[in-house]
Design goal:
Bound molecules: adenosine-5'-[phenylalaninyl-phosphate]
Structural class: alpha+beta
Number of domains: 2
CATH architecture of the largest domain: 2-Layer Sandwich
Radius of gyration: 45 Å
Order of helices and strands: HHHHHEEHEEHEEHEEEHEHH
Strand order of the largest sheet: 1-5-6-10-9-8-7
Mean pLDDT: 89
Strand content: 15-25%
Number of strands: 10
Shape: rod-shaped
Low-confidence stretches: none
Largest sheet: 7 strands, mixed
Distance between the termini: 101 Å
CATH superfamily of the largest domain: Bira Bifunctional Protein, Domain 2
Number of helices: 11
Length: about 375
């Protein structure tokens, strides 16, 4: 059958195929999940689908129309399969992304719980001071906390019954029956003390190290002091010792000034006031500008603009001799200050005792 009728029939059939194709593509595009898409399959490709039903009617078509209609139907079917496969890929990828987002674990997240600890303020201060002095060319030395009378007093030009011993309220250790110490330590066991200052470390360094010496000795010291806002029975000092040829008082003043501005900043400077220590001659106290008012005068510095930091002076010739160093050839200076009080000043803390009550709310501030 050829002619206008058969042409019109073919055009209708092709239009039906095209409509089924468009309808199928719209159904694929509308699927918002893999499940939705699966539901479209029988409607797109099954025997009862629009294209399937058109195909079933092909048997009654004239042979010459069948080839054209068959090609159009195959193309439409192929287009739907391609679109279906692409949509399946896209929807699977989207589903995977959603799942990953839902199940994402932040392995770097810090679990809620106790905060990580940190170094105590006095330890932080000690480390910072060490950094400053090491930067100025000093080494760091340490010594024992229990000392014989020799190291804590006698070698420092404080013989037994010297009145200046009363400057340090000393804690003596009771070692029971023992009367002598081993290892060639100077002094007797009956005279072992908890060191009252870090100056004995000077002696230990000078005994073993020939000059030139540039060292600091930070450490814990003990005194029979009652705890109050500026005193603790256990506290920390930092001792400095320099022994070299031609060292003068000007070197001491310059070193303390350099340290003061390196640690506190250029706005703070230092000054020396005459004083007395048996192991240095001449001796001085060294003050720094009040770090609260920067020298203007306030309550903390009693309106003087200055705060006392520690003691210092030129190493006494007797001390050099006690350590086997020739004081005609070598001279030196020493200084010592309280680390706890320095931390107190630097951070504007009112009461030294706060540093040792272990109140985590206080310690967490630093
Ligand atoms: C001395 O201990 C000397 N050895 C310092 C020295 C070294 C002088 C070298 C000369 C040469 P003094 O007793 O003044 O000096 O103590 C030094 C510092 O330790 C004081 O200025 C103060 O900052 C601190 N200090 C003293 N007693 C206490 C205490 N009970 N609690 C906290 N800090 C204290």
């Amino acid at each position: 059958m050829n002619g206008p009728d058969s042409d019109a029939g073919l055009q209708t059939l092709l239009a039906d195929i095209d409509a089924a194709r468009s309808h199928g593509l719209a159904a694929i595009a509308a699927a918002s999940s893999i499940e939705d898409l699966a539901h479209t399959e029988s409607g797109l490709f099954g025997r009862k689908s629009a294209l399937g039903q058109i195909k079933q009617g092909f048997g009654s078509l004239p042979v010459e129309m069948r080839a054209t209609a068959g090609r159009a139907l195959n193309e439409a079917q192929q287009e739907l399969r391609t679109a279906h496969a692409a949509a399946a890929d896209d929807l699977a990828a989207a589903a995977r992304r959603t799942q990953l987002q839902r199940e994402w674990l932040d392995l770097t997240e810090t679990p809620p719980g106790p905060r990580r600890g940190h170094l105590h303020l006095v330890t932080q201060t000690t480390e910072r001071l060490e950094d400053v002095f090491v930067g100025m060319g000093f080494t760091v030395s340490e010594g024992p906390q229990a000392e014989t009378d020799w190291y804590n007093f006698e070698a420092l030009n404080l013989p037994a019954a010297h009145p200046a011993r009363s400057m340090w309220d000393t804690l003596y250790l009771d070692l029971g029956e023992r009367t002598e110490l081993g290892d060639g330590e100077g002094g007797e066991a009956s005279n072992v003390v908890l060191r009252t200052h870090t100056s004995p470390v000077q002696i230990r360094v000078m005994e073993v190290q020939p000059p030139p010496i540039y060292t600091i000795c930070p450490g814990r010291v003990f005194r029979r002091d009652t705890a109050d806002a500026s005193h603790m029975p256990v506290f920390h000092q930092l001792e400095g010792l320099v022994v070299d040829r031609g060292i003068s008082f000007a070197d001491l003043a310059g070193t303390l000034e350099e340290f003061t501005s390196a640690y506190f900043g250029r706005s703070i400077s230092s000054r020396l006031r005459p004083s007395y220590f048996p192991f240095t001659e001449p001796s001085a106290e060294f003050d720094i500008n009040c770090v609260i008012c920067e020298g203007a005068g306030c309550q903390t510095c009693q309106r003087t603009g200055w705060i006392e930091l520690g003691g210092c002076g030129m190493v006494h010739p007797n001390v050099l001799t006690n350590c086997g160093i020739d004081f005609e050839e070598w001279t030196g200076f020493a200084f010592g200050f309280g680390i706890d009080r320095l931390a107190l000043m630097r951070h504007g803390i009112d009461d030294l005792r706060d540093m040792y009550t272990n109140d985590i709310r206080f310690l967490n501030q630093f």
